[in-house]
Amino acid sequence: MNTFGRLFSCTTFGESHGPALGVVVDGCPPGIPLTEDLIQPYMERRRPGRDSTMSPRAEPDHVEILSGVFEGRTTGMPIAILIPSVAQRSGDYDSLRSVFRPGHADYTYHLKYGHRDHRGGGRSSGRETAARVAAGAVAFQCLFNQGISIRSRILEIHGNSNPDQFEEEILVAKERGDSVGGIIELFAEGCPTGLGDPVFGKLDAAIAGAMMGIGSIKGVEIGEGFAAARMSGSEHNDPMQKSGFATNHAGGILGGISNGDPIVIRCAVKPTPSISLPQQTINSEGEEVEISIRGRHDPCIVPRVLVVAECMLALVLIDAVLMQKRFTGF
Ligand SMILES: Cc1cc2nc3c(=O)[nH]c(=O)nc-3n(C[C@H](O)[C@H](O)[C@H](O)COP(=O)(O)O)c2cc1C
Ligand SMILES: C=C(O[C@@H]1CC(C(=O)O)=C[C@@H](OP(=O)(O)O)[C@H]1O)C(=O)O
Description:
Pathway: Metabolic intermediate biosynthesis; chorismate biosynthesis; chorismate from D-erythrose 4-phosphate and phosphoenolpyruvate: step 7/7. GO terms for molecular function: chorismate synthase activity. The chain has 330 residues and is an alpha+beta fold. It is 26% helix and 22% strand. A hairpin with a 2-residue loop joins strand 13 and strand 14. The radius of gyration is 21 Å and the shape is globular.
């Protein structure tokens, strides 16, 4: 499944070590300002090779808009965006052709497809998210029109919630040949009431699906999330006043529909699977072997995944906005 969204949909293509990645965005309304320069700042926040806390693979991730835009504005036609790759260095993966990296998708891709691109994990690579970010940048352009904004922050790295120590946590793990994960938080502000389809298509379900669709995200909570399970109703219910809700334990969604308060989401990001410490694994012959992974890996995915999560949220929200406009405009 490469396509995401209903009215505002995107299909990504490309593998980590292929010549390029890209996305086709369909359903974007006409007249929205869109240029490469408007997309590039989002790409810059995600691309690898920027500092010592991330993979040193130096990809410029310059986008090229191929269609759907004329004189700086969308035309309502499919928008194709190309992101050439220039720093593959696929030789790093020669020894991993038939050995499965614990924690990565190598083993399950092998079982499902048999024939797979082992270089960088092919399509299971976090590099695929470059295409999602390009699509998300288009969604952001549409959301600005609606007065909706999204921001995110890191809450924890490796269980440490002191922002002054985030970088150190990552660099210490890297020095050990290990990796660490963490927790991120997202806020969507300015959302109107009424976004989301009740029951199966709940807005919370769409958001959780979008977040879980990002490699390495293993938990999602909305509002109080897991903490709600330990609260009483009188603590958790948000008192209602003429001016609005007194608190926001709901995280901006009730019954699968946005209630006008900020939407608050937290995601758990697992530690990067590819580490250089020796690990036990098997090869495609089923033999037990030891693996020590070299190459250019993120010692922590958290800092780079922030903008990816923001973009996935933007894609969910613009789709919900368009669905709601179709519903109320009938
Ligand atoms: C932005 C981003 C960067 C990533 N960087 C790496 C990496 O350098 N090395 C690695 O082994 N996994 C990396 N991953 C994680 C793998 O892509 C992911 O663990 C793998 O696809 C398996 O999916 P799962 O963790 O959801 O089970 C990255 C993921 C993202 C979203
Ligand atoms: C290249 C990117 O991230 C990559 C995500 C990734 C993985 O296994 O997910 C592994 C590394 O790439 P490779 O080993 O194939 O050179 C990261 O650098 C990117 O995000 O643009």
